[in-house]
Amino acid sequence: MGALIKGGNAFVPTVPLRVAVRGAVDVAALLLTERGRVRGDADIVFHGAPVHPSGTVRLVGGEEGTVWLETGLTEIEEDVSRVLVVASTENGALRDVDGLSVEAVAPDGTSVARYDMTDAGGETAMVLAELYRRAGGWKFRAVGQGYLNGLEGLAVDHGVDVAEEPAPVAPLPEPRAPEVRAPEVPFQLPPAPAPYPSPTPVPDWTFGSFFEPRTRSGPGNDVITVKDLPPGPAVVELAVDSDGYTGLWPLDRLNKEGSSLVNSTQENFRGRLLVSVPENGRLRLKLRADGPWEMRVLPLAAARRLTEDRLECEGPDVLLHTGGTADVVFRYKGSDNFIVYVYELAEHDDPTSLPSPGSSAVNEIGRRRETVPLPEGPVIVHLMRADGPWHARLKDVQPHSGVPGKVSEPRRAQGWLRRGRR
Fold it and tell me: Considering the entire predicted model, what is its pTM?
């Protein structure tokens, strides 16, 4: 397809599109509602938070000077009507960037829309393009709207709260009553007590190594090797288009099969699996798939978070809990096994291994409602078997003992805007 001019638009196929931004710039995506505003910090995808909580928009690496956004248009939440593609510079203006462009690419590698930026000026941040809903499908628009006031100006225009969070102030102890002395001696107040140390927020997720996601695909049965991964737990996201059997097994250094990760007759299998990368950094997996498949290997930090909002999914999954003690309520609608393990990481210091989960927290068959008590985070909740739809949410969430009062996770927006404030 020919390149669009500024303001031009075109329909794109409603499939998982990859969007390439070229020019060696910082890239982000904003997910907006019909009002043109984010719903909160979670709707910002950038280098410090490369995966949207829904999993539908991801920032991944590419060849030198190119950054890719993966957008699952078929699965983006109904509340989201636009996905902005944002470019910014840490030093200098966008007019100094050579070859700044944005291009949407279909799964087969076909270019479906492209915009070459040729008239940038002194702006340091810009909405390059957007994907937006129209007439039941999606369109791509070449936007090219720059901001001389940088990311902060762009953020304000789209509903991002740009205010810096005040440093937490620890309360002073109640003053002690003055010591009563003999009447002839005047009262003397004791020295002012030292303030309590400032609380340290519980980090969002620090267990395990971060790495750029790796993608593999194929037409059927295969043995997959992914090299140069950091040792330790990781997430494998698998999608198979088939009405037959799907099986997946890890292979050790002698090519012996380990315990099955997937053993499913579910049509069009979808799921996320917890794996352990060996010390040599080579993850080897044997796949039985009666149809085409795609696999992504993701860092553990890319797993979905459990919150008090309802999380709906289908198939096995890996979930993270970072708050205080809580109960997680599952509603499983499948007809086969539903098996859940909980890994408590608070006292586990080795990021290259997982602690023993003990016995399964849930091991049942068929439709059911289960409530599982969770310890304080960080915790991995592994839905090892779930051949059907389910939803989950937290209830009775208590403050984390690491912080007096309510736990406050670091704000995603502040990490995104930090470069723009230098």
Answer: 0.52
